[in-house]
Amino acid sequence: MAQSDNKKYKLLLINPKQKYVNFYAQTELARILRKKKFMIPLSLPLIAALTPSHFDISIVDEEMESIPDGDLPDIVGITTLASTARRTYEICDFYRSKGVPVVVGGPYVSFLPDEALQHATSVISGEAEGIWQQCLADFESGELKPLYRNSEYCSYKTSPAPRWDLVDTHNIFQLGVQVSRGCPYKCEFCVVTKMFGHKMRYRELDDVMKELESLPLRRVFFIDDNFTVNKKYIRELCERIIPLDFSWACMASIEIADDRELLDLMARAGCFNILIGFESLNPESLAETHKKHNHSATGYNEAVRKIHEAGIHITASFAVGFDNDTLDEFDNILEFTTATGLSYLNMNLLGAPPGSELFYRLEEEGRWFNIPADYRSGLFPCIHYMNVSQKDLFMKYIDTAEAAYSWKVVSEKIPLLFGNGKFLRPYGGEQLSVGIRFRFIRILFGELLFTLNKYKRRALWRTIQLMAQNKLAKDKGFSYLLSMMSYNRHIKSIRNNMAEYLGIIDKYDKGPWAEMTEQERRTG
């Protein structure tokens, strides 16, 4: 299969459809915004950018469009998460039955290459830079190897601009951008350091700016696992972003709360949201997972206040199911987030992704079991928990999520969150047309005003009052209500499917690990 001078190969890159989507994927909000998806993974546009020019590339995200029928590609590439592994393997089996080689990559298969190779032709383990190009060269010469893995991390000083021209960006809300790789911390449940190492690697700022200036959208999520580790770098980046009028979010550790100057600069540069891994309010659980850099619950309160004072929302990420946890952790999370006005809540049931230290520990203890990968999205219990049964954990999880996004609680949070008058800066990025704005207002008033639910009406009127008092920008107030509506709807859809979900859980639930006999543990 040696390349001729005029030979072009058809490369199909696929992001498989996820069967069970957690509520924080914001699929409902995307529908309200008339988008097909809130955002798609950065990996495929980046892989396309790393691909030699004599490949004719197509990108398909199955949650936006179907895989095309008709002429077969010459080679297929698939990015894989745990929650998309089953679908990935179905696609692999189909194309390989047609004689088409399939290469898979992503965090899940990086740590389970032997499983993936039961279906795929080749596995890319870890970073793709350099090794992807080698894989394609081997494909052209007819010598594809089963496993490709870099012997060391790439320098990552520069990165080609992702091929967003291959994606229908009109149908997604925001784009992913990455400026660094690595994480200095050692959280037991995380695979980031196994994928990218402990040492932080940063792109040159000119390289980042060139990419930002080329983007077809001005709404961005920086997918760096800890965006603000190098504060000097981020300060300069923010200064350079300000003239571009971006609206963006990022992930950072809670220590960012201690740097008010940087928070203010981030807000002026267009940052409206920071996802922070609180993980737990239980100090023993934080110690268990080696999250030593997190504050205590008292420190959390002050940190939240400081970030809100900068006019930045927090997406608060929690996991429940550590060995020191009981069901009381859910009540603590609900009480804490309600009292502090934390409105964007990402709750997960603790999992042990392959490659994490937690995975190896629980596998040795017999507490990790091979539940179908579809269920490993943070929505379902997928390990044997020390103090609670899987069914009790799941039921309490849904009850808490439903309460946290109930209109009663949302209406209580609105004055706590926006009463400081710091959310007056309008969003940057593309401005919505008058017609779309009118549609959103019609949806909000239809849902929140003409209703018998007094808490919906209260949430609407409290938001309007804060706008009238010049304490809240109109676009931020209305978008907040739309977001709360979307979360509320998604959780209702989960509630409507509880019979199916509980049927799944019943197949694997053996009760609390601490209460199981040795015989039950061996068979569980």
Low-confidence stretches: none
* DSSP strand tally: 14
Counting copies of identical and different chains, the oligomeric state is single chain
The strand line-up of the biggest sheet is 2-1-3-4-5-6
Beginning-to-end CA distance, first to last residue: 49 Å
Output the radius of gyration. 23 Å
Relative helix content: 40-55%
| Average predicted local confidence, pLDDT | 92
Bulk shape: globular
* Biggest sheet architecture: 6 strands, parallel
Query: Would you tell me the structural class of the helices and strands?
Result: alpha/beta
| DSSP helical segment count | 21
Q: Could you tell me the strand content as a percent range?
A: 5-15%
Task: Characterise this structure.
This protein is of the alpha/beta class. Helix content is 41%, strand content 13%. It has 21 helices and 14 strands. The chain has helices at 27-32, 43-50, 85-97, 107-111, 113-116, 131-140, 192-196, 205-214, 231-241, 260-268, 283-288, 297-309, 328-340, 357-365, 390-404, 407-418, 434-448, 454-468, 474-496, 498-506, 518-523, and strands at residues 9-15, 55-61, 75-79, 102-105, 122-125, 147-149, 175-177, 180-181, 201-202, 219-222, 247-252, 271-279, 313-320, 344-349. The strands form three sheets. A six-stranded parallel β-sheet has the order 2-1-3-4-5-6, with helices on both faces. Strands 7-10-11-12-13-14 form a six-stranded parallel β-sheet. A two-stranded antiparallel ribbon has the order 8-9. Helix 18 (454-468) packs antiparallel against helix 19 (474-496). The longest helix has 23 residues, at 474-496. The radius of gyration is 23 Å and the shape is globular. It starts with 8 loop residues before the first strand and ends with a helix. The relative contact order is 0.10. The model has no long low-confidence stretch (mean pLDDT 92).
